[in-house]
TrEMBL record:
PANTHER family: ENDONUCLEASE_EXONUCLEASE_PHOSPHATASE DOMAIN-CONTAINING PROTEIN, RNASE H DOMAIN-CONTAINING PROTEIN. This is Endonuclease/exonuclease/phosphatase domain-containing protein. It comes from the Eukaryota.
């Protein structure tokens, strides 16, 4: 399973989206974790739709906590959010024919 975790650290704007699209194109990952993307609300909705993942879960950016996003391909894996906090996501990943396993994104 291909997973990419990226601490974007205040990334925003067209350049960030261009780099993100290239990353997705070249690595064909099933799960993408973005830390501190600095987008929220309708702008974050638009970004998530634009990059083409069918499964999306976001902890919104608030104050000094800049958010965590989990994006995945529903056609290949299932993701269950077990716990959410403004600083982390605890998720369970279910791949066909394999035992479930957990991941904490901080």
């Amino acid at each position: 399973m291909n997973i990419v975790a990226w601490n974007c650290n205040d990334a925003s704007g067209a350049k960030f989206l261009q780099v993100l699209r290239l990353l997705i194109q070249f690595h064909n990952h099933l799960l993408l974790i973005l830390g501190e993307p600095r987008f929220s609300g309708t702008i974050a909705d638009d970004v998530c739709k634009d990059i083409g993942f069918s499964g999306i879960y976001r902890v919104e950016a608030t104050g000094f906590s800049e958010g965590i996003w989990a994006l995945w391909r529903l056609e290949t894996i299932q993701v269950e959010i077990l716990e959410e906090h403004f600083r982390f996501l605890y998720i369970q990943i279910l791949e066909p024919g394999k035992l479930p396993w957990g991941l904490v994104a901080v």
